[in-house]
Amino acid sequence: MHISTKCSVALHCLIFIYEYGEKTRVTSDLLSKSTGINSATIRNIFRALKKEEIITVKAGTGGATLSCPPDEISLYRVCKALEPDFLSKLIGVHRSPSPLCPIGRNIHHVLDCSYQKIRNDLKESLGKITLADIISDYEGIDQEETESEEGKEIENQ
Fold first, then answer.
1. Bridge-partner residues for 66, per DSSP?
2. Dihedral sign of CA atoms 140, 146, 149, 153 in order
3. Among 27, 24, 31, which Cα is nearest to 8's?
4. What is the crossing angle of helices 5-20 and 28-35, to 10°?
């Protein structure tokens, strides 16, 4: 099973926007330094999140902000924004089973039922986890430096 790393990068960005968005202009270049990901990739993630109205990006000078409260942004919503067909690609079935074999002839139908249950369960689970939950986990981590010092450190890199 596979959920793209774009999802973890997007969540990293969303936490950063939540934590520092009111204190500093959060740009793709700044998030590139924080995530270790190319700023062009961050801009692509921004486009997907913006399209789904998860973030707002100011034209011209840049700077991203959340478009809605963190408790309205589910993990499912983020994954779906980045890869709209991720659930259907999650579990694949081999393409060319033999139509001459009774198992090969029916394997797609048999597995589709089970795999759809897995997709539905995953969708439900991802829908229950919100950005607010993830931010709470982040804030629960024992941090030696204050958040404002960390933000300045990233900006100065």
1. 55
2. negative
3. 31
4. 120
